[in-house]
Amino acid sequence: MIVAGYHWSHGSGSSAPLEVEYVTSPSLDMLDTPAIVHKVLAVLKYGDRVEVLKKQGSWAKVRAGNGSEGWVITKVLVQAQIFENGQELLQELKGKQVQATGHTVLAANIHLEPSREAATLGMLTQGQSLDVFDRRMVARNEPGGEPKQAASSAADAWYLVQSGRRAGWVLGRLITLDIPDAISQYAADYNTVAWFVLNTVQDGNSSVPQYLVADREGTVELDFTHIRVFTWSVRGHHYVTSFVQSGLRGSFPIQVEHINNVPYFRLRLLDRNGKKIQSVYGLFDTIVRPIGTVDGWESDAMPAARR
Question: Domain 6-78 in CATH: superfamily?
Fold first, then answer.
């Protein structure tokens, strides 16, 4: 039986594709025609692979994975190599620690690199939730750029984020961070930029998290300049600021690890001479103790034991 309509034909007589692209929107209608009056043949999903058979203005005739053919809007398609690079970036974030959570305040393009000119991996909708992994200051109108070296008056802050199955860079001004309600009252007078649960304590029937919080004060070039640790008072049933340190020249990511049930955290810092070091701290019950420093930002070694 012959099925009428080009959009269902496939096989040896099918048109050779011009290129392979991927869908970057949550859903995409595939139509029988780009005309005003049309019929929806199928609904494609994010990450679906399509073969582009023809382009006509803002439309493309494509062949889906099941062989069906139809017309889609080209603005939500991305070239195969760009999509694959985005998937590699997504894989790189697996196992890395989230620095903060937030949402988009407006619809926002998600880029492969922290630059307005970089390839886009689609668009995040307004209010879309996301995890923040890194931050970078990049001079405007320059692709790529070195972190923390652009003048603040001519630079943009970018966040490396993940939202669902997408990862990439989004302009920082399009993101609002969602500080946990438990510590939001303590963030009123600070520009809080990251937070981490160090551990939990039992208060009656409730398990209450204890937090490390990072703030940024008086600068945009640095990721953070100030840290606080909030521990829970079981007797008073409220948070206590048990540790504060300011005047830091900090860079993301902050790392939290647990050794023998003790939470430790590592801060990537520049010392007075601009040397890259890591300062390591441990939370023992409700007391934060500096453990020492490690040279470089990539080492996962613990500082040598103090006498």
Answer: SH3 Domains (2.30.30.40)
